[in-house]
Each structure stands twice: as structure tokens, then as C-alpha cells.
Amino acid sequence: MRSATLWARMLGLSKAVVEGVEFDEVEQTIVVSVRPRKATKRRCGLCGKRCPGYDQGSGRRRWRALDLGTIQTFLEADSPRVQCAEHGVVAAQVPWARHDAGHIYAFDDTAAWLVTHCSKSAVRDLLRIAWRTVGSIVTRVVADAETKTDRFKGLTRIGIDEISYKRGHKYLTVVVDHETGVLLWAHPGRDSKTLERFFDQLGAERCAQITLVSADAAEWIANVVADRCKNAELCLDPFHIVQWATKALDEVRREVWNAARKGGQKTLAKDLKGARFALWKNPEDLTERQAATLAGIAKTNAPIYRAYLLKEQLRQVFQLKGIHGIALLDAWLRWASRSQLPSFVKLARSIREHRVGVDAALIHGLSNARVESVNTKLRLLTRIAFGFRSPEALVALAMLDLGGMCPPLPGRAAA
Fold this sequence. Notes:
With 415 residues, the protein is of the alpha/beta class. The protein folds into three domains: 3-102, no CATH class; 157-237 and 368-384, Nucleotidyltransferase, domain 5, CATH 3.30.420; 238-364. Helix content is 49%, strand content 19%. The strands form three sheets. A five-stranded mixed β-sheet has the order 10-9-8-11-12, with helices on both faces. A hairpin with a 3-residue loop joins β8 (157-166) and β9. The protein starts with a helix and ends in a 13-residue tail after the last helix.
């Protein structure tokens, strides 16, 4: 095997010719001189189309390659520019690196793989790069993958939610595929304009193919879905509906607690303050002490226990689902409306206002559980991504780890 071919294989190069190898004694690095093969010359760095040459650019340029053993390695080549009819004067495409990158494909892909499998410090120390550089690499790798992957093919059921990624009311809107549980799309912001970006990217034809959308009761989500997905049913997430009941229950508890405190019933006020978690938790998850607390409330405090039973029966509605769940919900609404508990009377009105979405969730058995699972993993990624300069880098990291865009390690077949 010729030495030039061996060097090309070691560096993971294709469509490139190795012209020479030198060891830089001053910088203690290996510098490999390369050039593109004729078939890959004079192409636009952005679109890849053949273009007339413009000039020789700024001379020789270097790209970081993976270390060879313990020695840093660089590729060096001319960097001519071409005149593209669409993009103007741009650097010519090279077959070993993405446009405007300072690292070769193998280096970028290795960094992207490592960041989804290793700690932040491990990636930094192993590759000898700054964490901000990792953010730039991840963004570049995902942008490249998006041009080669049709993530929206066959999409019919989606879940929409938002998640806080930074203090100061900084949010991401996320969209998840219910069929696969894969993160389809994420973008900074949580308003109608942000969500419309997703449907713009999806296109009118594929929007028409969406049949079910799960979400909370946010008006901005409902309005955009109704406008852009004419054939879709909006299913309100059962967890959020039950959460409304839990808040209504806590309002009743606070009202009774405040009345006891102001009336000088210190023992009752203390017991009610400590009963919060016993009332919130599901019966099957109660400790012995919490079960005893709940039994005491059942004997001594009718309003709170009635609120607790209302909360539990609403939870039972979503466990039953289907026509049985709808029938139980009808009975629950009648009970809540005449319960003489203002917070539950108000809740019954809210559920009636969103009845179409609630019934759709019961009929189709759809919830935002998969979206919440993705959000849980996203919260971990936000801590890992601390130090990235932009939310776009966080989104790219999320798409790598949760969106199925992580490249295989160079030299290995994709799993």
C-alpha cells in the first residue's frame, strides 16, 4: 500500500489526495498537505454546485484532524474561492470538511458522538478543545444532518409543549413524534409565532396529514393547530387537567387552614399545613403516616375530603378512558358544579370550555407523556450545555441526543 493511501485512510479522507506529510518541530504537530480530486474541485461550499473559479482566496488553510496517537494533526490545503450564481463569492467546497469549519468531518462527528455519551470535561480533555467550540461543532453537524434526513416523513401524531431552559423566562417550544418518541423540532420561544415556524417547515401538505395533536390548554397552541392542521384533533393532556384539580384542592385546603389559623385553632391549622402532600399524592403512593393523616381529614373536615375525592375521581376519568371515561366525566362535572366548593365550580366551567379537547384525549387515549419524557431529558441537557453561547447550540445538542441525529463514530457503521 502506498504511503499516501495509508495516510488518507488513517485520517478518514475520501476524494482527496495526500501530497506530503511533515512534522512541525516548533508546534509539535503533524501537518498533512492535501488537495481535492478533480471531480470535487470548483464547487460552491454552500450548495455543492459546480461554479467558475474566482481567485485563490487567502492562501493555504489548515483544518484540525483527529490526533494521531498523542500528537495533534492538521490538514493543510489551498483555499480558492468560486463565483456561485446563487450564493456569490464563497470558499470552494472541500471533501474533507463542512463549509466554514475548522475541523474535518471525522473530528466533528467524533465530537458530536462524544458529547452525547460522555461528560463535558471528558470531551474537552480528550479532544483538546474549548466547550464553546463543541457547541459550534454540534450546531454544524445537526445542520448538515437536517439536509440529508427527512424527519417529517409519515408524520401523523405529534405532541407539543414548552420547557424552560434558562432563568429569566427563557423557553423552548418542543414537538415530539408520538409514534417514535423522537424529538422532531425545538426552537427558542413559546408563542404562536414560534410554533408557526414548525408548521412552516412542515409544509401545507404534511400539515394536512396530521390527525392528532396532544398539548396542554395553552390558547396559543390551540389557535395555531386549528389554523394550520385542519384535519387534526387537539387532545388536552390528562396530566395538566388533573393538575388543575390538584390546584383546586390546594385552594380549598388553604381556605380552611386560613380560617383555622384566624379562629385560633392552632392544632388544626398545623395538621392541615402538614397534610399537603397526603392530599396531593395518589392513594397507592401514600406512606402509613400520610394515610393516617388522610383518614383523620375524612373524619373531621368534610370540605377538604370532598375536594380530595373530586380530585381522585377526575384522575379515575383518565384511567378509564373511552366512553366509560366520558360518562364518568359527565357525572364528575355535575358533582363538581354542586359541590359548594368555589375552586371546583370554577374548574368544572373550565373543563366544559375545553370539553372537545378533553373528550378527544379520552377517546384516543393520547397524552403528553412522551413529550414530558423528552422534557425530562432536555432538562439534563440544559445543564450539560451550560456555557454554550446560544440556545441554537442547545437545540442542536437536543436533536443529536433525542432527535436521532447523532452520527456514528468515524470508521464504524451506524447502529
